[in-house]
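Support case: user asked for a sample of complex input and structure output to validate their parser. Sending the pair below.
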Amino acid sequence: MIEFDRRRAMIGAAGLAVGGMATARLLPEEMLLRDRRPARSRVAILSEAGYSEGLMDTLVRALRLFNLSLHNKSILLKPNLVEYISGVEVNTNPVLVGAAAEAFLRLGAKRVVVGEGPGHQRDTYLVLFQSGLEDQLRMQKIDFIDLNRDELCKVPTRATYTGMEHLWLPRAVLDSDFVVSMPKIKTHHWAGVTLSMKNMFGVVPGTKYGWPKNVLHWKGIHRSILDICATVPIHFVIADGVIAMEGNGPLHGTHRHLGKIVLANDPVAADFICARLMGLNPSLIWHLDRASRFLGNGLGRIDLIAEGLPQQIVPFDVLPEFVHLKIHA
Amino acid sequence: MTTTPREILKTYLKANEFWRYHGNTGAIEPTCLGLLALRQESDPEIIFAIQVLHNLQNADGSWPAFAGDDPAGCWTTALVILVLLAVGGRSRALESATHWLVDAKGREANWFWRWKFQTVDKSVQFDPAKYGWSWASGTTSWVIPTAFALIALQQIKNRGLNPTDSVVERIDIGITMLLDRMCPGGGWNAGNGTAFGVPYAPYIDATGIALLALADHAEERGVRASLGWLGNQLPGCPSSYSLAWGILALTAYREISSEVSETVGRATEVLTALIQKGVGTNDICTLAVCTLALEAAEGDNVFEVRE
């Protein structure tokens, strides 16, 4: 009798385990992840007509609104530096990057470095030089780190969207106290938009994942964005939307003078607001929608601490497959 | 005062037992390019670095990207083959590496993905029947890994080390892949020449490496167009890394016209000036490629693929 009960209990336990595993696999990934969303997120929209010398003072004032603890911190700025196309604002503007570096130093940071691992172009120095960022950083004595070729650390992924158990990530990113994603606000021909979360593709090293980071494309761009952003700390966002890009972004779109810079203490919240500024519905962008369920905040939990969203927004032009993202007045 | 890239490379060699991009992790690409640049030196550190390379070979004959990497082969295998060819001859390591390289294919070589790219997923314009090599296993073909693999296999074939049908077939398909992915007007971007209906602009380094792989096909119209594009880009190139790849490529075509020879001469002067200014001299890959470019300008091109 005792033997029978033990056998039945073992079969029952095994059944429960198998059933539990099967159920877990059917659940949306974010239901299995720890909810890391802050109670509220803060986003500052700033109007800026151009890339002027006054940007640094503007950023200092705006950063103070966030009450950040920057004293003695090492800061890594991660701009979007893709490649140089003459006459096209493809990259985060070097003047804005320089202004951000100066602003963080002014607010007590111990050290500011700029890091990026361009996606397609292997000659990082050439992109750095042609984009004007090399000149900007040299004038300010700010170091640049090629994240495609930095020392790598094996880090367990903190989300499960790609099925990758770990990512090899640059030590410069992992060792920084404060990582700032500095995207260019653009449309993207695969992901719909490229904002502060998609910008973090650039921390994934080409030496391991190729140029572009093709392994991640095959795992799914939206899924890869989620795994990267769940695994790599993003402490702050400064998004360049002074001159943004619409249409066939991220390289061959057209300029859109949005005249905005967006600061945020939550990349998901930043991207929700940037998408709204683009006249696009963030909840229909797969990685943003999913991220707002566990990683950061969507519209209902965002405080706009500077300007509000404009009353009238003409949606960005997008490729036909993304027309459904447009918010129509 | 140390001024030539070769001399600076040797100081790195003395200071580091295994070369790296940055930090403390030994990496295959800088090690291979460094060894190619110093292949005629006989320092004990070089012997040691070659031994370290041997030790890092995966069980399947491939090489990882860096020491401590996951044991999956990648594009660096072709670079190691070039080193093994430069410093020795037939070996078991070379044989297994060659087998791995012949078997490695871009994902579009698989019938399912080829069908998908031909019928459903047509936003990027290319012929998936023409495939090459990827950066990492399980992904599509890209220009630079394909070009390095083609240089390695052509050198293997030309030396009679493995002139089998399978090697010849991979070389032929790889050549057609490179020609298919060329940008309109010549030169190569990272992968495809056109996507979403937009022609992509070529990169100097990718174009240089692709042209090295195609040196036995100088009669191809696309190759000629690419040479013309590259020749126009080099005079104003501010990067010693790209400039060096450009010089390496043009030296492989020097005999086709005096104009190419003159461009090589002028570009070499610019490269020497950039090195003197310190552009790229903190990077082993750049130093190595510069050394190889200056050597090629003197008539010894380590990436030569013609018999």
